[in-house]
């Protein structure tokens, strides 16, 4: 049986079907699975996510999928976290108390409700620009920046600025994508970001490190 290009982690949260359909649009196969053994042995892994940080960590821990993602990352294969999935790659989040996967140093912090007295709508929802900070090994399309679709109330601050792929401004500047070695974090939704997002998924599904 032919192995899929990408394995999408199913731990009960995330827009799984949309990711699989978007990957199919760019000519790549994807499987959705909640089996830790399959995730640990995959060729490329996407960790999606929506909702609350602590609940997501609980589900990853209870299912064994958190350890499976760490194992996959430790093998050196491309691993990507999308939206909440990006925040789960970090050490933790202001939203909760549980530790993240710790694959990239940093934490997620909630957007302030106002900036210099002006109200800031939270969550950040809609299209925003991502400005490239460095080239990406895993998804070279990110090196050109672009406009992407965001829905999030928390934004990642990394410990090492060298991990930042793109910056985005919403009330303040934050890391909208990050990369360390074979691990990629994407705060926006590539599956909802039309040609810009599809280019990233095409790159990731074809990446060989």
What does this structure look like?
The chain is an alpha/beta fold and 209 residues long. The protein has a single domain (6-206), classed as Class I glutamine amidotransferase (GATase) domain (Rossmann fold), CATH 3.40.50.880. The protein has helices at residues 16-25, 36-40, 53-63, 65-74, 84-88, 194-206, and strands at 6-9, 30-33, 45-47, 79-82, 92-93, 106-110, 114-115, 118-119, 124-132, 146-152, 154-158, 164-170, 172-180, 183-186. The strands form three sheets. A nine-stranded mixed beta sheet has the order 2-1-3-4-14-13-12-9-10, with helices on both faces. Strands 5-6-11 form a three-stranded mixed beta sheet.
Helix/strand/pairing class, anyone? Answer: alpha/beta
CATH class: Alpha Beta
CATH topology, which one?
A: Rossmann fold
Question: How many domains comprise the coordinates?
Answer: 1
> Looking at the structure, what is the overall shape?
globular
Topology as H/E string?
Answer: EHEHEHHEHEEEEEEEEEEH
Helix content range: 25-40%
Distance between the termini: 23 Å
Mean pLDDT: 94
* Number of extended strands: 14
Largest sheet: 9 strands, mixed
What strand line-up does the widest sheet have? 2-1-3-4-14-13-12-9-10
Percent strand equals: 25-35%
**What is the C-alpha radius of gyration, as a whole number of Å?**
16 Å
Give me the CATH superfamily.
Class I glutamine amidotransferase (GATase) domain
Uncertain regions spanning at least 5 consecutive residues: none
Please identify, by name, the CATH architecture: 3-Layer(aba) Sandwich
Q: Count of helices?
A: 6
Helix-strand blueprint:
Layout: E1 6-9, H1 16-25, E2 30-33, H2 36-40, E3 45-47, H3 53-63, H4 65-74, E4 79-82, H5 84-88, E5 92-93, E6 106-110, E7 114-115, E8 118-119, E9 124-132, E10 146-152, E11 154-158, E12 164-170, E13 172-180, E14 183-186, H6 194-206
Parallel strand pairs: 1-2, 1-3, 3-4, 4-14, 5-6
Antiparallel strand pairs: 6-11, 7-8, 9-10, 9-12, 12-13, 13-14
